[in-house]
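Hi support team,

I've been running sequence recovery on a batch of backbones for a student project. Most finish fine, but this one hangs at about 90% for roughly twenty minutes before it completes. I'm not sure whether the input is malformed or the queue is just slow. I've pasted the structure tokens below so you can try to reproduce it. Let me know if you need the job ID as well.

Thanks,
M.K.
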């Protein structure tokens, strides 16, 4: 597994499929997050207003997400076990 690295060195790919583990709020409780680019406010074709979103690391929690503004360190997710049972 990789070592923890400063958050400033984390790749920012703007792809939801690329995830990392972060340490946030000064606590060593990792979160799985994705980098999201800034988005301006817009209305979709159904008239639903989508608010402006700042660029940053976002943690997904169910269908919602939150900005992890105080992230300090990161590392890539580890590879899963070869056969799914840890062997």
């Amino acid at each position: 597994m990789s070592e923890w690295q400063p958050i400033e060195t984390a790749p920012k790919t703007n792809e939801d499929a690329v995830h990392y583990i972060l340490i946030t709020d000064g606590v060593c409780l990792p979160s799985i997050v994705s980098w999201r680019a800034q988005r301006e406010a817009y209305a979709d074709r159904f008239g639903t207003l989508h608010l402006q979103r700042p660029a940053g690391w976002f943690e997904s929690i169910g269908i919602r997400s939150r900005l992890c503004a105080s992230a300090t360190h990161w590392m890539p997710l580890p590879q899963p076990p070869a056969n799914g049972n840890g062997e």
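--
Follow-up from support: It reproduced on our side and the slowdown came from queue contention, not your input. The first strand starts at residue 5 and ends at 6. No action needed from you.
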